[in-house]
């Protein structure tokens, strides 16, 4: 009897729910993979569903899009609301009744899977380092997404409370070894501007696959920022900054400006703070003059520092060290970055031009003196070469004898007197005389005789060719 009454009561409750469920709901598909959309269609007569309270739905679903329409059917106003939903977690999720207490939709469930069949699920990993930062200390937020490489991911946008500064840093994709997965990395630099608890939400991560929009839930991260010391000036960074210095000028000219470029990564340090930081850290060296420091922001949230200076004299110039203080939260004390010192050499263009002109003049004088000293030797060498060429060109013994005694060193009226003056062999003189006056003699060879005289002429010293 008691069982019959309980069954009757349950039946009456169900009938009451159906009676009051004047908002028809249709959900498709009822089984999806995490990241895929679900379409919820609500229809009801004499209702304005565009004003429907959807707060209960936002716990397990993101309402990505909504479209409301109204039509008249049979003299009655009919309202339709279509919602595009994305699940915030995997599992069996319930779409709660939506509407007023007496006019609402029936509850429905949807099964959300982590992956299709043997396909690897999407892995989303996020972390913060350090997890207990100080106010104005850079915090590194890292997001890693691993999938099979079939999705095109959009740049995530972290969402934080007021008093948190975000700076995008790096995005890269790389293949993971032994997993067959693609890992996408995103990095941000966070800066808490006031103490207290900070919660950072990455929201829903969007991707596209084969033209279909997918959205995945990302974890929410929290950390607590501790106050910075009260004595710390605003221009002193918290945490060690990263400083990259470019090359110094290869040649420093006196009176001409030269630049030295730095790249500073110090989140939380503004343009005026950087200029103040550098002004305190530097001092003017002897023989050099510095212009005001130029500080420009870069596209990745860093600072480009341009130091412009002029050498006022030539010679060795010492660029003093730059001591850049910062507060180290781990040791709770002030520390410093040091750049330099460096030694440069100033070059004065005017003095260098005078030096070059002097060297050129000296080289010309030395060249002239050397040419003057070498001219007598060159003249004798050239005369000997001409004389030897004429000996080779002599066509007969008579012409050879004429060249020997009349055009060579120590000319003489006769061949014998010339041979005696140059100490030549008497037998060669007699052979040449016989060739001149007895050309038909079978024992004389004019060509051999000419070569013999040429060899003898080559041995004569240059001093005789004046």
Overview of this structure, please?
The chain is an alpha+beta fold. It folds into 4 domains: 20-113, Immunoglobulin-like, CATH 2.60.40; 123-225, Immunoglobulin-like, CATH 2.60.40; 242-347, Sandwich (Immunoglobulin-like); 375-464, no CATH class. Helices cover 25% and strands 38% of the residues. It contains 7 helices and 26 strands. It has helices at 2-20, 271-281, 349-393, 397-406, 415-421, 426-437, 446-458; strands at residues 24-28, 31-33, 37-45, 61-73, 76-87, 91-95, 108-113, 123-129, 138-147, 152-153, 164-175, 182-192, 196-201, 204-209, 212-217, 220-225, 242-245, 252-253, 257-265, 288-290, 294-297, 303-311, 315-319, 322-328, 333-339, 342-347. Strands 17, 19, 20, 21 and 22 form a 5-stranded antiparallel β-sheet that branches. A 4-stranded antiparallel β-sheet has the order 1-3-5-4, with no helix packed on it. A hairpin with an 8-residue loop joins β8 (123-129) and β9 (138-147). The longest helix is centred in the last third of the chain and has 45 residues, at 349-393. The model is unreliable at 6-21 (pLDDT under 50).
């Amino acid at each position: 009897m008691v069982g019959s009454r309980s069954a009757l009561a349950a039946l009456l409750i169900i009938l009451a729910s159906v009676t009051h469920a004047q908002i028809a709901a249709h959900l498709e598909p009822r089984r999806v993979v995490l990241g895929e959309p679900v379409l919820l269609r609500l229809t009801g007569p004499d209702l304005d569903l565009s004003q429907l309270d959807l707060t209960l739905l936002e716990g397990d679903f993101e309402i990505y899009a909504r479209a409301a329409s109204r039509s008249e059917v049979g003299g009655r106003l009919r309202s339709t609301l279509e919602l595009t939903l994305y699940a915030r977690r995997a599992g069996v999720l319930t779409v709660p009744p939506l509407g007023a207490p007496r006019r609402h939709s029936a509850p429905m469930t949807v099964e959300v899977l982590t992956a299709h069949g043997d396909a690897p699920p999407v892995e989303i990993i996020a972390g913060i380092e350090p997890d207990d930062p100080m106010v104005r200390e850079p915090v590194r937020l890292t997001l890693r997404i691993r999938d099979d490489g079939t999705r095109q991911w959009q740049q995530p946008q972290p969402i934080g409370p007021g008093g948190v500064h975000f700076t995008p840093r790096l995005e890269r994709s790389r293949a993971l070894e032994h997993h067959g997965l693609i890992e996408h990395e995103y990095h941000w630099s966070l800066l808490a501007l006031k103490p207290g608890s900070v919660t950072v939400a990455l929201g829903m991560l969007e991707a596209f696959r084969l033209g279909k929009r997918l959205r995945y839930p990302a974890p929410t991260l929290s950390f607590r920022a501790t106050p910075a010391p009260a004595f710390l000036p605003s221009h002193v960074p918290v945490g060690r900054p990263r400083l990259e210095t470019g090359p110094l000028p290869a040649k420093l000219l006196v009176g001409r400006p030269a630049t030295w470029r730095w790249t500073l990564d110090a989140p939380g340090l503004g343009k005026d703070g950087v200029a103040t930081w550098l002004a305190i850290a530097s001092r003017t060296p002897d023989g050099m003059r510095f212009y005001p420091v130029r500080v420009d922001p870069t596209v990745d949230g860093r600072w480009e520092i341009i130091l412009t200076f002029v050498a006022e004299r030539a010679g060795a110039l010492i660029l003093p060290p730059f001591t850049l203080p910062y507060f180290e939260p781990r040791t709770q004390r002030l520390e410093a970055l040091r750049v330099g010192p460096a030694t440069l050499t100033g070059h004065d263009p005017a003095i260098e031009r005078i030096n070059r002109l002097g060297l050129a003049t000296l080289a010309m004088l030395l060249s002239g003196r050397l040419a003057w000293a070498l001219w007598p030797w060159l003249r004798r060498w050239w005369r000997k070469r001409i004389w030897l060429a004429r000996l080779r060109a002599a066509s007969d013994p008579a012409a050879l004898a004429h060249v020997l005694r009349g055009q060579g060193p120590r000319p003489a009226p006769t061949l014998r007197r010339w041979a005696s003056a140059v100490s030549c062999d008497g037998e060669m003189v007699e052979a040449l005389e016989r060739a001149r006056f007895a050309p038909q003699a079978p024992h004389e060879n004019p060509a051999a005789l000419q070569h013999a005289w040429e060899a003898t002429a080559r041995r004569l010293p240059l001093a005789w060719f004046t």
